[in-house]
Amino acid sequence: MSPEEFFAIDGVVMPAAEARIPVLDLAFLRGVGAFDTLCTYDGHPHGMHAHLARLWDTAGRFGVAPCFSEGDLRRVVREIQARSGLHELRINIVVSPGDLTEGVFGASRPRWVVIARDQHPPPPAAYERGVTVVTCPGHRIWPEVKTTAYLCGWPGLAAARAAGAHEAIYVDEDGTVREGVTSNVLMRTGTVVCSVADSVLPGLTKAGLRAVAERHGLTWREHRMTLHDLHGADEVWITSSVRELVPVVAIDGRPVGDGTPGSWAKTLRAEYRDRCRQESAADAAAFAARHH
Ligand SMILES: Cc1ncc(COP(=O)(O)O)c(C=O)c1O
To answer: Which among 101, 147, 185, 195 is placed 20 to 30 Å from 212, CA to CA?
Structure first.
């Protein structure tokens, strides 16, 4: 039996079935919402500062200042862990301007929602055998922030689902690769790891991986990449907080490299995971020391 799920609205934890937001909520009504996802390692949230900084950067674009603290979020996560019995969580945080009050813009006070559920990472086979992806046209309209508006990527995700693929990646008409609909895209050629820095979400997994890769003597470059570059690379990876690093073995049915995961994917992910575990435990200890 799966444990009962618990969510939180404005810091109040409740059974998921009771979690309701009004139809006038502007994230629902207008797609105006900030969103971020982080995971726990050994029960401790990872990268809370960086995820909250990115969340508040996005919320600031629609005029919402920080409306809860790190302490509020840690308390909510602990309560959800205790009530659900789930130790390892995927934590989605959504901030909306609140409810429409008048005309087309008026907003009540901001609302924050925490949806903390079982992590559901990709299955082990995704890491061992790699995944396939499809390409989709276009890009996110405000690429440097993480919003609730997934309209641009939805047709790509539907195409991925129809093709039995794991992810869709945005490719412009001229072949420029941006990012995945829900991930960053990286490639390794020889000892050089390359990804795109402009007009994509500054992924926190990608940033963490950089330190790991450089410690292994890999060179990190950030510049334009094309679909042609990806097909010619030794390895292609997608990264995100939930997936960490997943090797991509085919794009639109065409193999990447020799069509099997490269050896670096496994090495870097293992080290990245260790690092996340250590950082999460250290962050939790530092927070506890500051507040007791
Ligand atoms: C569009 C997009 N790019 C990249 C990422 C990866 O970001 P992070 O590694 O911070 O989870 C995500 C994560 O959901 C995303 O939605």
So the answer is: 147
> What pTM did the predictor assign?
0.95
CATH class of 124-277: alpha beta
Ligand 1, atom nearest to 207 Cα: 9
Question: Is residue 184 within 6 Å of ligand 1 at its C-beta?
Answer: yes
Fold for the domain defined by 6-118: D-amino Acid Aminotransferase; Chain A, domain 1 (3.30.470)
120 CA distance to ligand 1 middle (Å): 16
Let me know: does 116 contact 82? Beta carbons within 8 Å.
Answer: no
Alpha carbon 86 to chain centroid, angstroms: 20
177 close to 171: Cβ distance less than 8 angstroms? yes
Q: Are 185 and 195 in contact (CB under 8 A)?
A: yes
